[in-house]
Amino acid sequence: MNPFEAKYTSEALELLADLEKLMLLLETHPDDAALVQQVFRNLHTLKGNSAMMGFRSITDFTHHLEAIYELVRAGKLKVSAAIINITLASLDHLSILLNGDKQIGDNNKHIHEILTNDIVTIINYSNDEGREPEPVALEGQSISKGEPLTIITDDAALYKRKPSIPGIRVPVERLDTMMSLVTELITLQAKLNVLTSEHPQPDLVAAAESLEKISTRIRDNAFSMCMVPVENMVTPFHRMVRDLAAELHKEIDFITEGTETELDKNIMEGLQDPLMHLLRNSIDHGIEEPALRQQNGKPRHGRIVLKAYCAGAHVYLEIQDDGKGMNIEKIRRTAIKNGLIEESDVMSDKELQQLVFVPGFSTADQITETSGRGVGMDVVRRRIADIKGQVSIHSTENEGTTVIIQLPITLSIIDGLLVKVNGADYVIPLSAVDICHEVSSVQLMNGFVQVLMIGGEAIPYINLQEELEGVYAAPQSHEIVIVHYGEKKIGLLVDIIAGKFQAVLKPLGRYFNHLDIVSGATILGDGNIALVLDTNKVIAQSLNKKIKAI
Amino acid sequence: MNLPQQADSYLTFTLDAALFAVNVTRVLEILEIKPLVKVPMSPAFMRGVINLRGNILPVIDARIKFGMADAPFTIDSCIIVMGIGAGKDPMLVGVLVDSVREVIELREEDIQPSAGIGAFCNSELVVGMGNTGDNFAMILDPDKVFAADELVILAAAS
Known about the structure:
Chain A has helices spanning about 5-30, 35-55, 55-75, 80-100, 105-130, 135-145, 145-160, 170-200, 200-225, 230-245, 265-285, 290-295, 330-335, 350-355, 375-385, 465-470, 535-550; strands at about 225-230, 250-255, 260-265, 300-310, 315-320, 390-395, 400-410, 415-420, 425-430, 435-440, 445, 450-455, 455-465, 480-485, 490-495, 495-505, 520-525, 530-535. Chain A is of the alpha+beta class. The interface between A and B is medium-sized, with 25 and 23 residues.
């Protein structure tokens, strides 16, 4: 079964289950217009989905069934026991079809015809004569109470229903509860490890090790449950691209790659809007009109590729278009005009391009319906930063633009480096760390300009003790963690590196909302708290202070 | 027959020489002093965070918050865990106080509108003065005194 069919089947079965519930409700409240409306809508969805997948028999059959409720909705027919019976029988039939090969075969042909007949009879009665609904009901009842129903139950028994359910839907809250319990388990595990190392009894050590293996597996499993393929988010984009392209008279092929890549559902939720915005940008500002494209020797059809892939501890999403790209000179001029840079500033093309993410930057000459209304790239960057992601843009004029979004795989547990600063514990996310050095191995350290030389490379550094605690005392720091800051490398001076630590991120709460250099806290094995640093923010803040001081 | 007068229970605690009270419905538990982890770049009254059974609890030093002189911890010092904000999910905050006294019952007639001047003239924060017989306890409204919004504004200003 291909993935589309599997998805269709599970959705259809859900619709059927829903319908069954509705029918039972309808039995007790036959005059509830809202219920009828909902039944109609579900049937309609089922019909639409089936038609899209090309299952003719299911489509036609559902169409008939839907027609009954169309009449009920229009007030031409009243819900009767007969209608409910036949609907329920039809639902059973549909579910057998869905669990089978979705075709009418020899074994179910008989029921299919009888049910179709019954349904058509009900519809015709009400259509032809506009009779009182009562006789129709009687007629229907007599049919459905007779043979067909018994046959159905027999056949249902003959058919082996698939014993396993391919998947269940779980409310998000339950998943969240499970995740928080798992994170507590991990914390407790760390504590147990500390205790066993203090009292190393062979039995205890063995038990603790087995428990650790199991809890690691539970953790991995629980995380995988919260992972959703990018596909789920991307599917609605196809429609949006198509509609928007048509509206703007552009011809665009929207191609998605690697949509099976999985992401934490919480990250996915935060990604929807920024991605939508980036796509709109590509369609509106990136891809040119077909005529212009031909003039420039490009194919009429523009191409937008949305690519998702995993690399290291990150998931990357790329939106790539082969449109007109960005004009570096124009960016430069706008940035100067808006006071973002000075005329004399020397910046690489790459650096200039990233300026589009700065608030208040927009080069669009005219504001269009689609984009350019102030909610620009700075919002995109902020939203992505909210889910601990980073975004960068690479563009070549007349060749196209690529926006790359880097995301963590999950938000709640991170691998980190446990360090001590002035006696307090901090965690630096391992994803940001490049390399660690001892201070004694540094060739040269200049305290005034705060630059150190390692392996012939000059790297600016920040004394974390000074930055976090405001202590200017002689550094007692012995080790340096070199972290990535955008394209650059920056050294962070710490007292000591205690080791690698799997940090369960806990929010600090609303009191510390204003504090962005700390992204959360984590509880260490001994019950102490370590704060998790957001290195990008720490560095940005330190640089800001320096700039202000000058 | 007259209905009995409505009486509420209040937990009293001391700061410096003053007696304070909060409605017990707002108090979740009372903790001994635990190791506090200072959070960088936070205001002085924010003493740090503690590990409350696996969750992070922010702790406010009521002395500093109320502009009193800082004092070393004593054996009586403790942290009152309070729920701030109404609703299903109140925000928890620990409040560092010098000592916890007792739970008293105060009827409405025992509570007088606050009329003090000085640090506590702000009647927004002090709901009233409760007559405990031999003393007056300043009844605080935790929502107002320890609300996060106000603290954030304070932090931004400092």
